[in-house]
Design a protein that fits this description.
- The protein has 511 residues and is α/β, with parallel strands linked by helices.
- The longest helix has 16 residues.
- The chain has a six-stranded mixed β-sheet, with helices on both faces. A six-stranded mixed β-sheet has the order 18-21-22-15-23-24, sandwiched between helices. A four-stranded antiparallel β-sheet has the order 2-1-4-5, covered by helices on one side.
- 32% of the residues lie in helices and 25% in strands.
- Helix 15 links the parallel strand 21 and strand 22.
- It has 17 helices and 24 strands.
- The radius of gyration is 23 Å and the shape is globular.
Length: 511
């Protein structure tokens, strides 16, 4: 008897057909990888399983029981827990309050027993290795910390069939390894896990079985031991794919020709966090035209605050920021755009998109004035721009009037990348640029970054993917506790070497 059996599942949203008779068969006590390109229908299929949407056709069975069209509460009560790619947390309350929401322990029957809730959360957090303080507000968490809370939430509610949608997209390598330990322990205890991920190395390392989807259909079900990442990628995309991450790219030859006062120059930068302490403390560095400087580090060591301050989204306590010798330290976001700065933010929902806006309108965010005449938006130019960017960046579905909310996470990311790399810029802040995108899109985005470097752009790359940092960067810096622990040529770096600096066991000269 299958833990999950889905047959002939169809689902359309107006003219957009998300599922075209998809199927899924997951056995009890296995880790089952569900893979496919952005927009292949993976998340939609799991929403059908979790009762979030009802299929137009097809059958769903869980543990031998027919449950087609059931509700979310029915799914949760039956032990299904879904960790969605995009967070579903209440930002104004604490970690503990989020985890017990709807099932709050009470004192004297009416008052929330907060101490008990916090103790329960702390115990589970320590047991799983997904460590997070229960008293912290969600709004104060980094993206990686919020992801830990999402995973803890479904475990806290006793899920026995666990669906994880891109769970490692925001985790550091040590956190990924801890999560794998947790998932293997759950599997060994008889739990069933469906893992949606674009990281094919994770699929091969962790899963027992793989289902591959393409364009809303299931195109393959294979044993992990009988395949390779290249074969999986070929099934996903329908063509040969260059798995470039991990293959070091030769440093740019143009850097030595650059003017010394051009590119990005950061001098003794200090940034204060929400609790008053310095989250970035005296950081200085330069990124020359035709160079990629990669920043590695465990989430929460100041990378997010550094990029936000450079982009104008967070105030600077001390120091200076210069682009092409122009001081932009106190300038607005729009003025920084005019000075030549583009920014791919790490959180596309919070910083990169207005989800209710159309694709076309999202593609001109921040530069609307360049598409207007006497203050009136020229819709023809907006639509022409959208058509060009949708084609260039393979945004799916290719409908410029579709709301960004209707896109898969990877296609939402393509909209942000298209906008930021489609405008004129001399300096690019690329923060987690391939987070949540498929192997084909990763290949494309990597090439866009390399092309921009070859054109003499200065690029600051922040990525949780160490192999991405190593493959693309000319130099690599490691952030630890708000400082640059080390800066070294990428040819001298490796995952093991960087890992020691990331956790503070090795110290170096960041000059």
């Amino acid at each position: 008897m299958s833990a999950i059996r889905m047959e002939g599942i169809k689902k359309a949203f107006g003219d957009c057909v998300a599922l075209r008779g998809a199927s899924l068969d997951v056995q009890p006590g296995e880790i089952h990888a569900l893979v496919g390109e952005n927009g292949a229908g993976k998340s939609t299929l799991m929403k059908v399983l979790g009762g979030l949407i009802k299929p137009d056709a097809g059958e769903v069975e869980v543990n031998g029981r027919r449950v087609t069209g059931w509700s979310t509460s029915d799914a949760i009560a039956s032990g299904i827990g879904i960790v969605h790619q995009h967070f579903m947390l209440v930002p104004t309350i604490t970690v503990a309050e989020n985890l017990v929401l709807g099932a709050e322990p009470t004192k004297q029957g009416v008052v929330l027993d907060y101490k008990r809730a916090a103790d329960d959360v702390r115990k589970l957090s320590n047991e799983t290795g997904l460590v997070i303080e229960p008293e912290r507000l969600i709004s104060d968490l980094s993206v990686g910390e919020a992801q830990r809370v999402e995973i803890l939430k479904v475990l806290f509610r006793g899920a026995r069939i666990l669906v994880l949608d891109e769970p490692t997209a925001v985790l550091s390598p040590p956190e990924v390894r801890e999560l794998w330990t947790v998932l293997r322990r759950l599997r060994d205890n008889g739990d069933t896990i469906v893992l949606i991920t674009h990281r094919l190395d994770e699929v091969v390392e962790l899963s027992d079985t793989i289902t591959v989807m393409r364009a809303g259909q299931t195109v393959g079900r294979i044993k992990t031991s009988e395949t390779t990442p290249a074969e999986i990628a070929r099934l996903m995309v329908g063509r040969e794919v260059s798995l470039s991450a991990g293959k070091r790219v030769q440093p740019s030859a143009r850097r030595s020709e650059a003017q010394p006062d051009q590119g990005l120059d950061v001098r003794n930068l200090g940034i204060t966090g929400s609790h008053g302490g310095r989250v970035v403390d005296g950081v200085s560095f330069k990124v020359s035209p035709g160079e990629i400087l990669g920043i590695a580090g465990v989430e929460g060591n100041g990378q997010t605050e550094l990029i936000e301050a450079l982009a104008g989204l967070r105030p600077v306590a001390s120091g200076d920021i210069l682009i092409d010798s122009v001081d932009i330290t106190r300038r607005s976001v729009a003025q920084r755009h005019d000075a030549g700065l583009s920014h791919i933010p790490e959180d596309r929902h919070r910083r990169g998109l207005i989800l209710e806006y159309t694709i076309a309108n999202n593609l001109i965010l921040g530069v609307q004035r360049h598409f207007s005449k006497k203050g009136i938006i020229d819709r023809n130019r907006v639509m022409d721009n959208a058509a060009e960017e949708i084609t260039s960046f393979d945004i799916r579905p290719p409908n410029p009037l579709l709301a960004a909310r209707a896109l898969s996470g990877g296609n939402q990311q393509k909209v942000v990348v298209a906008r930021e790399m489609g405008r004129k810029f001399s300096v690019l802040l690329a923060s987690q640029p391939t987070r949540g995108v498929d192997v084909g899109a990763i290949e494309f985005i990597h090439q866009q970054l390399l092309d921009a470097r070859a054109q003499g752009k200065a690029i600051l790359l922040v990525s949780a993917e160490l192999n991405e940092v190593l493959a693309l960067s000319d130099r690599v810096a490691v952030m630890y506790r708000g400082k640059f622990a080390v800066v070294m040529p990428s040819a001298e770096a490796s995952e093991d070497v960087l890992g020691e600096y990331m956790i503070g066991t090795k110290k170096g000269n960041a000059a």
